[in-house]
From TrEMBL:
Gene that this sequence comes from: purN
Annotated EC: 2.1.2.2
Enzyme class: transferase
Protein name, per record: Phosphoribosylglycinamide formyltransferase
Pfam families: Formyl_trans_N
Pathway where it operates: Purine metabolism; IMP biosynthesis via de novo pathway; N(2)-formyl-N(1)-(5-phospho-D-ribosyl)glycinamide from N(1)-(5-phospho-D-ribosyl)glycinamide (10-formyl THF route): step 1/1
């Protein structure tokens, strides 16, 4: 059985879609959800889905080897970032080379990097007059949004679109594609 750990800092809608995708599968298990935010909506979703939650703070994440140790002890095959807002430290990246992925709400390399997440990305896309946006699923390295690209999907951005309109289109792409791409990655391993 392939085991997934999800890291999330926010509402957890992508985490929920991933859990639902694999819910009836005997060959894949979403084993743990990690969060650094004790107020994150992902916690309620995890409880509803009966997925254990691991809480951690900044010090534990950046200055200890505790998180990689938990992942290795649990036999995690793939680490999935789903709305996780912290830069992953080298100790964790090195523990899971090419076994950690992220989804970004834009077509990288555009609109990536520190501070470019969620609404900030969609506002930048609209303010720049882009005609398309989308999602990028990529491997995680030690820099924000710079890992090798695995998959991209596009959506149209019209002159009338607001940042909220773009967000809705991008979320639809995330929900459709992220679970499927995770499945494909696991199948190849």
């Amino acid at each position: 059985m392939k085991r997934i750990a999800i890291f999330a800092s926010g509402s957890g809608t992508n985490a929920e879609k991933i859990c639902e995708h694999f819910a009836d599968r005997e060959d894949v298990d979403v084993s743990l959800i990690f969060t650094n935010n004790p107020m994150a909506g992902v916690i309620k979703r995890a409880l509803k889905l009966q997925v254990p939650v691991v809480f951690f703070d900044r010090k534990t994440f950046y200055h200890t080897g505790k998180i990689p140790q938990i992942l290795q002890n649990e036999g995690i095959d793939l680490v999935v970032l789903a709305g996780f807002m912290m830069l992953v430290p080298p100790v964790l990246v090195n523990a899971f080379p090419d076994k950690m992925i992220n989804i970004h709400p834009a077509l990288l390399p555009k609109y990536g990097g520190k501070g470019m997440y969620g609404h900030h990305v969609h506002e930048a896309v609209v303010n720049s007059g882009e005609t398309e946006s989308g999602i990028t699923i990529h491997y995680v390295n030690e820099h924000y949004d710079e890992g090798d690209i695995i998959f991209q999907a596009k959506c149209e951005v019209t002159p009338a679109d607001t940042a909220e309109d773009v967000a809705r289109k991008v979320h639809a792409l995330e929900y459709d594609h992220y679970p499927r791409v995770i499945d494909e990655i696991l199948t190849r391993r």
